[in-house]
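User: I'm designing a mutation panel for ABC transporter substrate-binding protein and want to avoid disrupting the core. Could you give me a predicted structure to guide residue selection? Please restate the sequence first so the numbering is unambiguous.

Assistant: Good idea. Sequence first, for numbering, then the predicted structure tokens:
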Amino acid sequence: MNTKKVSRRTFLRAAGIGAGAVALASCAAPPPAAPPQAAQPTTAPAAEKKPLTFVWSPKAVNNPVFDVARRGAQDKAKELGITVEWVGPESADAQKQAELLDAAIARKVDGMGISCNDPDALKPVIDRAMDAGIPVITWDSDSPNSKRITFYSLDNEAAARKGAEIMVELLKDKPNKTYAILTGVPGAQNLEARIRAFREVADPAGLQWVATDPCNDDIQKGIEVVENRLTANPDLAGYFMAGAWPLFGDINAMPKFQAAAKAGMKVVAWDILENELKLLKEGLVHALIGQKFYGWGYDAVGILYDIVVNKKEYPPFVDTGFDLVRTPEEADVFLKKWETGNWKD
């Protein structure tokens, strides 16, 4: 045995391949050994894992309400090391939104977050995504009968009831208690909930509803609708804007609105965009209901990531809460956010 070991070591040194070489088949000197090869895997190596890709779909990309949501989504994507694509129709269009989402399903994206133009029109595409293994959540505007996992939003009904209580308070000493409602896309689940809840409080309290006018989430259309309503009802006592599209633009394009507000018409409006906050400070708007724009992107992307990566379960509805702005001082707090771009605090 010792003789063999010495002979083998001597041979290995002579061959220059060291003591780690494979054992010889016999004691006879073999031909020079090939260089040792790395062990080959029994299966093909796995491809490098690509970053997750989520599609975030607003009702319309031309609506400034969604700009802060986009910023939030981008910030969260950067933190998580994922990609979030901003995919939506230029203007509010449920059919176009569904087509864009179908294209994303075909690309096999990893998840979707959708603000639905219409709950029924978006239900089939949401269900197709879920059936294809693509998790879907909704934010801002829901499709409650779809297979979506959860809905991230303020409680639209609670916020609208609060808005109605404020309108009742503002008009309590006025003999004229007529009011009109401005809405966006007819049938949008979030807007319908706001209108219904507002009227459930306002009408029994003695306020007199005149009309509900849609503007299809379009700023210019909203301006025209409001001016036309005030032409038809110049003595309107109150205006509830379930979305404040006309207030996003140039107030000078609405001379009838300005005149009515200065004459005492009370305005309760959704959202806390920069123009609206300035109008509140000027006394042309009297209460603003603020949604968590930044959270529609930042928080909701985090929720979808938790679902996809961490397999976390969420309830059907996640309540964001809402902000209420009634005083110039409160308006200044949010104007500072617009100025600095810091919406995290």
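For picking mutation sites, this is relevant: The domain at 156-290 is CATH 3.40.50.2300 (Rossmann fold). The chain has two domains: 53-154+292-314, 156-290.
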